[in-house]
């Protein structure tokens, strides 16, 4: 199964944290890297005024894996914690790294712990731009449009700039 992850960082060595997050996913041994986007710099979304200047670096990585999204959710938390992610309870607080599952093949999950596809992937430029780069023709479950077409219609794309091609 193909599984797509969104990576983001807005603290410290942002690029270093993205690289370490990608490498952490691969270290699980549960997936093989099949694609990765360039790195995009983006404005933070829905943050407190004090954090508005803390720009993110974002990317998407795609793995081939037989592991379930629920297994990946556990591993993502371990990778984030190992990279210094502290969950303060403040929504969208700054973070060393954030890893989200965007999609997992044709699976749909909607539980308290996990929603796949990610419920807001289609309105977030920081997810759509890198996803459209690596999987432009992908149609996620529940959708009729390809990722590239969703990206073209996204209102949250004005402050999404590709800053690194290869990392």
How would you describe the overall organization of this protein?
There is one protein chain. The protein is an alpha+beta fold. The chain is about 25% helix and about 25% strand. It contains four helices and eight strands, in the order βαβββαβββααβ. The protein has helices spanning about 15-25, 70-80, 125-135, 145-150, and strands at about 1-10, 30-35, 40, 55-65, 100-105, 110, 115, 160-165. The strands form two sheets. Strands 1, 2, 3, 4, 5 and 8 form a six-stranded antiparallel beta sheet that branches. The two termini are about 25 Å apart. The mean pLDDT is about 95.
Q: What's the number of extended β-strand segments?
A: 8
| Alpha-beta content class | alpha+beta
Number of helices in the DSSP assignment: 4
**Radius of gyration (Å):** 15 Å
* Secondary-structure element series: EHEEEHEEEHHE
Low-confidence stretches: none
Largest sheet: 6 strands, antiparallel
Q: End-to-end distance, in Å? A: 24 Å
Beta percentage is 25-35%
Q: Give the % helix.
A: 25-40%
Mean pLDDT: 93
Overall 3D form: globular
Notable features of this structure?
167 residues, two-stranded antiparallel ribbon
Summarize the structure.
The chain is α+β, with helices and mostly antiparallel strands. The chain is 26% helix and 26% strand. The chain starts with a strand and ends with a strand.
